[in-house]
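ok posting inputs for the shikimate-3-phosphate job
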Amino acid sequence: MTNIVLIGFMGAGKSTIGRLLADQLQRSFVDVDDFLTQKQGQTPSDIFATVGESAFREMEHDALVEILANDDQIIASGGGIVENPANQALLSGAEVIFLTAEFATILPRLLADDTRPLLQRHTTQSFYALFTARQAKYAAFATQQVWVDGKTPARVAAEILTWLQDGRTDLTALRSQIDSYDRQILALVEKRLAVATKVAQYKQAHGLAVVQAGRMATLKAALHADSALPDAVVDTVIETLFALTIAHEEDVHDGI
Ligand code: S3P
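and the output
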């Protein structure tokens, strides 16, 4: 079987998802950064600091040549693998999966980790420019794009396993993107209901009714003005949210 190579920006989950895939497919797992660290006796961070980025890119290319001499592996690449155009031809025989994440997903993960040399060397602006420029490069290298925002690593691994086993069509990447938005929408609904709990407690403490006359109409009018979506779509979404929230607030009132 061909090698499966995970690419994407740092913090997208390449190593975590790669390990899950390797476990489930019973294939060996190679992390290019770890391979390099072992070979050079230095972490990518230290290599960047001592010999600079272009020397690092050459070492990374050589490591990739060595790793790709074997088959059947799950390979987590470094985020900058796409900076060396020679790597594209090298990866041409592999299944190359682009783990796509939004900047808003990536940044907090990276800020919580002080071992990322690129982040340390950039301003916020230049880091965002790098992120944006990289997206097109990942897409050019990839044979398949998978959206990770809002999904657990296990969910992303399961999604990849499904299409590896059942095959894929042009719909596969689009569905991956939609599934990601669904999870982000549900996470927002969860936040909305958490606030609704406090609203219910306030109303209860102040003797106010759960449903406030006139508020729904006022909110809808404001949403019609603010949203680019057709009014009918806004109404369908917001009426569902109102119904959920009212039921939730009633549960809070009843102590459920
Ligand atoms: C890099 C990403 C790192 C590592 C090196 C450079 C990059 O890998 O290879 O620090 O240029 O994006 P991860 O994506 O695994 O963090």
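notes: Residues 10, 14, 33, 44, 78-80, 117-118 surround shikimate-3-phosphate (CB under 6 Å). The longest strand covers residues 95-100.
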